[in-house]
Every structure is written in structure tokens, then in C-alpha cells.
Amino acid sequence: MASLKPTAAESLASAARALHYALNETGTVDEAFKKLYAAADPQQHETLRSLEKLLRSPESEPTTPRKLRLSSYPTLAWLLRQTSTPERSAAALFGEFRRHQSFSATAMFTVWSEFAGFLAYLGAVLAVLILLVVMYGLFVLPQFRGLYGQFGTPLPRITSMMFGGGAPLFTLLLVSAIGLLASLWWFVLDLRRKLRRYAPLSAGYLKLPLIGAVALAYNQYLWLSYAALLRATGMSAAEALRIAGGRLPLAPVERWETLPVSSAPGLVNDLALAFRLGKLDEETSFQQVATVDSFLAALHRCRSRSRLVLTICIYYLVASYVAAMYLPIFSLGSAM
Length: 336
Fold this sequence. Notes:
The protein has 13 helices and no strands. It is an all-alpha fold and 336 residues long.
């Protein structure tokens, strides 16, 4: 198995079920794997080796192939090690993981379709604008400077601000537009990469405008998804949420009994209230579905707002440059 693609989760789940059957007959992991290797086809040995490595090797095992390290493999290995009997929990955990892979495929398509089109278009507009500005500054503006100099008249103020004296306004507007466009591209690519790896987004994203809400919703989804995998192995909901939260850049919840319940709505508050009512299992299952909807809604809002901000910024830039380029022509009559 080269990487954990959608079909790989099914193969691992099948191998884990076979391991569970073998353990019931042999009693030890070593004997169970020997029996599996003997009974399996040669084509299945690679999947069995991947399962064995998941169960035996540490997450940062240097011999793990790079393609596996860049997939959901490290997260699954970590989750398995949180269970009391990884070899018997693997089948249930991989079976639940298939639900995430279905969501991951849908989410990656949604992320790309929501952002790629308008980011590529506005990036092309900005690139053409930069090319035109450079050509104007090199070949046209010196002619205007010489012509205005013959009449002892300075260039129009907006032209001087956009192109003269180091062009501070030009630089400020251009750097702002490029920075916003580049940061959105980076976030989209990083989000797709994290979805493939089943890994959380860094805490730094949570502080940024526009994309902070998306990062929070995605990490909250992962929290409930990790907990669902652990719960599938027989772990209690409170313990699963506590362990899953330790891998995410969210405020940890060590003891649900002492967590205060506020009147403000929120995921942790809803879970804490459900714990006091003895319904944490039911609320965790509900929130796992709800966080998917929250993530997709946050993604759509981010796309709408970022598109509006970028469009206004770049089109204002275009209008300013067009005015700065053509004003010397319109003002030439008064200078003569």
C-alpha cells in the first residue's frame, strides 16, 4: 500500500477484522500475524505489513515510507496506541475511519471548487496589471516626465504618488493585494493537505480574519471525529473526547464534572450540559454530524467574504493605476 487512499482504508479494515479472528484462535499477536501471512494472498501481504507497522511502530518511526508519513497513517497509529488493546481495536477503528474518508473526499472537492476559480481569476488580473505597470514605468512614464519637464510642470499628483518617489502608494496597495491572495492560496492548499492527512490546522490560523472560523470549525470536526474512532473501540465518550482533544490546538477538557456550564452557546458548553444530563454519548454523536455542517458553512462564508474583499482590493488597485496612467495625457493641455 503506497498511501492511504479511499480503498486503502477498506483494505486495512478487512485485514484488521482478519487479525481479530486470528487472535481469537491463537491468543498472541505474533502468532496471529504468522497465521495471516500464511493464509493471505501475496497481493495482501503489503496491507498486512502496513497494519503490523501501525500496531507495532511508534508514530515517528524513521523507517516509515515518506508517502505514509504524509498520509493519515501517523494519526491512525496515534489513535490506535490510545486504546488498551490496539490489535483488537483496529477493526472497529478502521471501520469508523471510512466515514471520515467519505467526508474528506467531499470536503477536498468543495474546498477546491469554492476557492480555485475566483483566486485564479483575480491572480491573473493582478499579474496582468503588474506587467502593464512595469511596462508603463519603463517606457511611457519617462517620456511624460521629459515632456512635463520642458514646461516646468510636475506630473499629476496621483501619478507621482503611484509611480514617483519610490512609489509608496503603489507598493502598499500591491503588497496588500499579493499578500491577501497568497495567504488564501496557502490556506486552501494547506487545508486540502490536512484533510488528506487527517491532521489538525495550526493554532495560528485561529487568530486570522476570514479563515479563523474555518480553522476552528475544522478542528472541532476533527475532535469529534477522533473521539468517534476511539468510541468505536469501546472507550467512553468522556475519555475519548479528553484524549482526542490532546492532539488538537483546542482548550483541553480534563474533567467534564468540574467544567462550568455557561449560558453562551458553543460546542464545549453543549457537551458539558449533556454530560450532566447523562447524555454525552448521544450529544457526541449529534455534534459529530453538526460539526460537518458547521465546517462547510464556515467554508462558504469564508469564500464569499474573501472574494468580496479581494475583488474590491484588486479592482480599486486597477482603477488607481488606470487613473495614474491616463491622467498625464488628460492634464497635458493645461501644462502647455
